[in-house]
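The following record pairs a protein chain with its ligand, iron/sulfur cluster.
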Amino acid sequence: MKEKICRKCLLGDLDEDDFIRAMKERIAEYPADKRTEENEYRRRLEICRGCEHLGNGMCALCGCYVELRAIKRQSFCPGRGDKWKAGK
Ligand code: SF4
């Protein structure tokens, strides 16, 4: 069984390489039946890339890591007017 990200750790307690690796594994292993289709995933992330609320991979409005948030098909952008939806 893969190690999961510890939700109780403070950033200062985490090994950065392990944290990033665990995050990437979590994204890669997200269930296929709930995953965003690849082109839509890339489109969402391009919108995040140009967004003023993105910082260090995290959305300042919701506190999510956007790559993890965007992989969830039913997820939405918390920005005004839902930037992912508005970008379609
Ligand atoms: S507000 Fe929306 S587009 Fe901007 S970083 Fe957050 S999720 Fe991405």
